[in-house]
Amino acid sequence: MGDCMYRLVASDMDETFLDADHAIPASNLRALKRMRELGVLFVPSSGRWYSSIMDNFSGEARELIEDGYVLS
């Protein structure tokens, strides 16, 4: 685990973590990578169904949250 005081980051999805087109901005993808390096767990949070949330994560982004934790 990295040298970080945070262990978990939860973020709302729609127009918070995702942009208006429901895409992950490059800056947020970089943040996911850095959190992973530091051992910080990222947890998407939304009122949507799990499958709907996970549809927003593909390729590299899916690998970065592969543990699959979601607050819904």
Can you describe what's shown?
- By secondary structure, the chain is an alpha+beta fold.
- It has one domain.
- It is 40% helix and 14% strand.
- It has a two-stranded parallel ribbon with strand order 1-2.
What structural keywords apply?
2 strands, 72 residues
- In angstroms, what is the radius of gyration? 12 Å
The helix-and-strand class reads alpha+beta
Tell me, briefly, the overall form.
globular
Terminal-residue CA separation? 26 Å
Largest β sheet strand count, sense and barrel closure: 2 strands, parallel
Point out poorly predicted stretches: none
Number of strands: 2
Strands of the biggest beta sheet: in what spatial order?
1-2
State the helical fraction: 40-55%
Query: In DSSP terms, counting alpha (H) and pi (I) runs of 4 or more, how many helices?
Result: 4
Q: Please trace the helix and strand order, writing H or E for each element.
A: EHHEHH
Average the pLDDT over all residues and give the rounded result. Answer: 89
Number of domains: 1
- By oligomeric state, this entry counts as single chain
Q: What proportion strand?
A: 5-15%
In brief:
Helix content is 40%, strand content 14%. It has 72 residues and is of the alpha+beta class. A two-stranded parallel ribbon has the order 1-2.
What topology emerges from the helices and strands here?
Layout: E1 8-12, H1 13-17, H2 26-38, E2 41-45, H3 50-54, H4 59-64
Parallel strand pairs: 1-2
